[in-house]
Please model this.
Amino acid sequence: MFKSKELKSQKRTPTASVGASTAPGYPHRLNFYDLPPLFEVTLEDFEESAIDRLRILAEIESSYARNRSWDELKEVTEKLCKKYLPLHANATALGKINPLEERKRDHLGHFVLRLAFCRSEELRRRFVTTEKTLFRVRYEGELREEKMEFVNSLNFGWVKVDTNERSSFEAELKALEVKPPGLPRTDEQEGPRAQEYVKVHWTKVPDLVAKRRVFLRGGFAYVHSREVSSIVYHEFESALQKALEHTAKMLPRMDEDTRLVPLLNNLSQGFLAGIPSEWSGPPLAGDEIRADMIDDMAKKHFPLCMRNLHECLTRDRHLKHFGRLQYGLFLKVLGLSIDEAVLFWRKSFSNITDDKFNKEYKYNIRHSYGLEGKRANYPAKSCQQILTTDKPGVGDCHGCPYRHFSPENLQSSLLTHYSLQGLGTTDLHEIMRTVKDGHYHVACTRVFEITHASKGVKKGDGIGDGESVTHPNQYAARSIELEKEQSQEGTVMAVD
Ligand code: SF4
Model:
């Protein structure tokens, strides 16, 4: 699919525009993704473009799980798009911005994710829903002129209702002019001019038919110009649905490609816990974390998975292999130096002799810091890894409590660990419902919001800019950052 050829054109005939000269083959930033990318890509681009897109799609899915309003979802999505997948309009692609590169990356990421998400009915459904939402966010945010150019370049088979027909159905069409409450302002004028009507086969606008916002006659739906976006969204959705089914049939041919299949398998897990950012360095630049600080930090800043590990370690004076691995790498990335780590684990394993500790555990601690064996710098585990690998068995303390605890144990653990930070029994209902629906990291994000409300975090803020928790270190780092901000504010006020 990804051959070394330049992309010549989109399937739908583009209209000339300002951007046509700066982004050949991509006259609009909006894209129906009719054709696969036909340019050469590196394996790195292949993966990175998909990961960045998946960050956005995973957050869209989290937004639905968190019952965000459309405006909130849009705001969060736009912020993430700006950060991970900027896509400038023709009119704003000025200076150093290269719209061609942005649009090619958008195009590539979409198609890589098609490969990852076409393989089951469930994955296809989730991909179509989130892609359609991303398209809608971009479509609503598009400049009016460019949106009209884009819409006019698409061939949806709609027919403009002429004057004769308009006078025949004057009363019926007039009734459609009443703007339904809550319709976004940006949907008001696009496609054909405002106060005009188009007719399409009614199956192209099922949502408008269901909401009785069209006039039906002879199998056609008469649609007010302000509702044209519904046709566009429906076309986008049904074309993508069909394309995914087609890709699924073709995919078995790729099964022998040992480079791509593991990558695609990994990507398809992205909806489970979002896509983590890299957490490889200490979040507290300049602040040393000592072994004797961990107990206090765990109570104030750690997510439930790490609090649970800390509790088990304190209680049993021991942790099994996967628990040590999960907690040890987390502490390393938090900023615990190797010397302090050895001290911490030595003190924690207080039931064993120095000799046993040095022989059986010290090597592994040094190994995880890249000082032994193949000297690799191991990263801390992300939520996705904790949720999907090394499932804990009886007596194990690692894993994610939101996924691996029974509902009763989870509820009692939440109250034990977080009631002093503001989590009450009334919050449990919402958290347990999210867990039941399989949105574990969304439940964790909600707990973060509740337990940091005293530091100004509101519902929907997530760990910053509305983002959900995707990594335990990100959770802890943000919690520490909030505490610092609060104490700095306190200092400034005291000086004033
Ligand atoms: Fe830990 Fe992530 Fe689970 Fe939260 S969602 S408890 S950070 S693994």
Notes: The chain has three domains: 15-153+236-250+260-268, 167-225, 291-495. The first strand starts at residue 159 and ends at 160.
